[in-house]
Structure formats: structure tokens, C-alpha cells
Design goal:
Layout (H helix, E strand, L loop, with lengths): L2 H4 L2 H19 L3 H18 L3 H4 L3 H26 L4 H26 L7 H13 L4 H23 L5 H40 L9 H18 L3 E8 L2 H8 L1 H18 L5 E6 L2 E7 L3 H17 L11 E7 L6 H17 L5 E2 L1
Parallel strand pairs: 4-5
Antiparallel strand pairs: 1-3, 1-4, 2-3
Helix pairs in contact: 2-9, 3-5, 5-6, 6-7, 6-8, 7-9, 8-9, 11-12, 12-13
Length: about 350
């Protein structure tokens, strides 16, 4: 089955989540150090270059918030190697989210302090866009993340001023929040598109451009896995090696374009004739190979005979006679490797040709 078709919405979500987690892990190696350094610089400013905040009756809250940011960021970074040793990704993700959320709430709290004496929203803007830039999060979850910041801001503002937040003061925060949600949405949508494109590019490198089937390279990447599964769990696997009879004659008499049409049509017949759990490859030239999972040799012979008959009865365009194929079958045995398995299928294919072609040999 095509890997693009197999990449369901659920799998896309899972892979996107794994990518986000890996990026968050890399970013959090350095982000707490940078944030603690920035917060410490503000504390130095308050000490050596007093400003408006130093005159505020709420000055101790400024110092407390920045001090907490420094200490918590350093503590988080010290504990980060321990967090990474946790076995469950969900628990790690909770720690990652908690750090960013606390840093965001600190910037929200700073904004509530700034608004007591001015209309300075810079702390809120820095906080929310810091989260957008540094934290990889699903856009739906980010909506809850950012809206909870607005609710927290309104509650703290009410506690400090004993009055509800006026609409004109809330509007800039709403604009920042909507813009940040849009940026996260675009980023995560782009991530999904890039993930699909990545699979398509990988798929194109693993597929034969003429027939659309997987190529020989991908066969020798996947077949050893099937053999190892047989050795570990006893999963039965059979191979069908298919060769077009008198293909050189088709090319010589009707040209290579006619031969290419035969190969393309045969690839369609093969693809339609196998199950979703099976895989088909263009082995080389006019040879094709099918890997039948969870299939014994006798079952493989029935499938091969059905496919042989379908090919024989199919009206191939540009060829006035019935196109036929020979099929050699091999089943995985204990101690096999990919070379041994394919060699047995190839020997049976040769026997089918010696027997007069248009044969199945198991």
C-alpha cells in the first residue's frame, strides 16, 4: 500500500507531536539559560540604573517576579537531564509546557504591574511571542494556553485595582493573542504540509518512476525485516518473482514504448491483485517481485496462479498476442537471508521458463 495513503490523519498527528517534542527538547537545552540571563539583567538594571519601576509602590513585585524567573529557569535547567531520563513522553511534555507557562504568566504579571502607572504592554507582547517562537505546541492547545493567560491577567488586574479591566485596556492583549494564535496555526499547518512533502520525497526515492512500484533499493531495505520477523515470531512470508515472457520480442517488434506500456499495465494488474499488507517491487527490467506477508507457499501458489491467468487474459495495448508471465515462488525458511530467498524464487522462475513459459513453479 502507498505510504502516502497509509499516512492517516491520526499518524500525521502522532508524527507532528513527535517532531514538536524533539524540537522542544533541543530548544530547552538553552532557552532557560537565556531567559534567566535576561531576567538577571533586569535585576541589575534595577540595582544600578533605577527607573520608573523603582519608584513604584509595587517595586518589590517586579524584583520578586524577575528573581523567580532567574531561580526557576536555572533550577529547571539543572533538572533537565533528570527530566529527559523519564520514560514516558507525556510526563516530559508536561514539564516542558509547565516551564513555558510559568514564564508566560510572569510576563502577564509584569504587564499588570506596568498598567498600574502606564499603558505599557511590552512585557505581555514579549511573553506571548516568546512562547510562539520557542515553544512547539498544537494550535488548538495553544488557544487554551493563551486564553488562560488573558483570564489570569484580568483576575490579577482586578485584585490589584479592585475594578474590572476596561475594554480599551484589554483590546491590545486580545490583538496580541489573536495574532499569536494565527502564527502558531500557520506554523503547525506548515509542519504538517512539510511532513507530507517529506514522505512524498522519500517515496519518490523508493519508487520506480515507470511503474510506480517500489524499487529494488527499497526491497533490500524491507526484506531483511520480514526475515527477522520470521526468525523472531515465525511470521510466514512468501515471495513471487515474476518475469514477462518474450519481452525482448515485444521491444524488438513494436518498440520500447510498447514495452513500457506492457510494464505499466502489468504493474497495475499486480497492484490490484495483492492485499494491502503485501508489497510489490520492480526487481529489474521486466522482472517484478511481490512480498506476501503472513502467507505460506501453497497460498502463494494460488495467488500466483490467479495473477498468471489474469495477465494471460488481459488485452495489452499494442501487442497482438496474449502477454504471459512466469512466476517463481519461495517461502522463508529458518536460516534464510534475502539472497537465499530470492535465489530460490529465481530458480523456480527458471524452471517455469524451462517448462514452456506461462507457468507457476513453487
Amino acid at each position: 500500500m502507498d505510504r502516502i495513503e497509509a499516512l492517516s490523519k491520526k499518524q500525521l498527528i502522532k508524527q507532528s507531536r513527535q517532531e514538536r517534542f524533539a524540537e522542544n527538547q533541543r530548544i530547552l537545552m538553552y532557552a532557560p539559560l537565556v531567559i534567566s540571563a535576561v531576567a538577571f539583567l533586569y535585576l541589575l538594571q534595577y540595582r544600578f540604573f533605577p527607573g520608573r519601576e523603582n519608584q513604584s509602590p509595587l517595586f518589590r513585585y517586579y524584583v520578586g517576579l524577575f528573581s523567580f524567573a532567574v531561580l526557576f529557569s536555572l533550577l529547571f535547567r539543572l533538572c533537565f537531564p533528570i527530566i529527559l531520563k523519564l520514560r514516558r513522553l507525556n510526563i516530559k511534555a508536561v514539564f516542558f509546557a509547565s516551564y513555558y507557562y510559568l514564564m508566560f504568566l510572569i510576563t502577564v504579571s509584569l504587564t499588570t504591574l506596568d498598567l498600574q502607572a502606564s499603558s505599557d504592554y511590552s512585557a505581555y507582547a514579549v511573553g506571548i511571542f516568546m512562547v510562539v517562537y520557542l515553544y512547539r505546541i498544537d494550535w488548538k492547545r495553544y488557544i487554551m494556553f493563551s486564553l488562560s493567560g488573558l483570564i489570569y491577567f484580568s483576575a490579577v488586574y482586578y485584585l490589584l485595582k479592585a475594578e474590572m479591566l476596561a475594554p480599551d485596556r484589554l483590546l491590545p492583549l486580545i490583538i496580541f493573542t489573536i495574532l499569536s494564535i494565527y502564527l502558531v496555526y500557520v506554523r503547525e499547518k506548515t509542519r504538517t504540509q512539510m511532513l507530507v512533502l517529506k514522505v512524498k520525497l522519500e517515496d519518490s526515492a523508493l519508487k520506480d518512476p515507470l511503474t510506480g512500484l517500489y524499487n529494488r533499493r527499497y526491497l533490500f531495505e524491507t526484506l531483511p525485516l520480514r526475515i527477522s520477523l520470521f526468525g523472531r515470531y515465525g511470521d510466514k512470508t512468501a515471495l513471487l518473482l515474476i518475469d514477462v515472457d518474450h519481452f525482448k520480442k515485444i521491444n524488438d517488434q513494436f518498440g520500447h514504448s510498447a514495452g513500457d506500456k506492457v510494464l505499466k499495465t502489468l504493474a497495475v494488474i499486480i497492484r490490484d491483485g495483492i492485499r494491502e499488507t503485501d508489497s510489490a517491487y520492480r526487481y529489474g527490467g521486466e522482472e517484478f517481485l511481490i512480498v506476501l506477508n503472513d502467507t505460506e507457499r501453497d497460498q502463494a501458489a494460488l495467488m500466483a496462479e490467479r495473477m498468471r491467468k489474469t495477465v494471460e487474459e488481459y488485452p495489452f495495448e499494442g501487442v497482438p498476442w496474449n502477454v504471459t508471465v512466469c512466476i517463481g515462488i519461495a517461502e522463508i525458511r529458518p536460516g534464510d537471508n534475502d539472497d537465499h530467498l530470492i535465489e530460490r524464487a529465481d530458480n523456480n522462475l527458471y524452471e517455469a521458463k524451462r517448462a514452456g513459459r506461462n507457468q507457476v513453479v513453487k
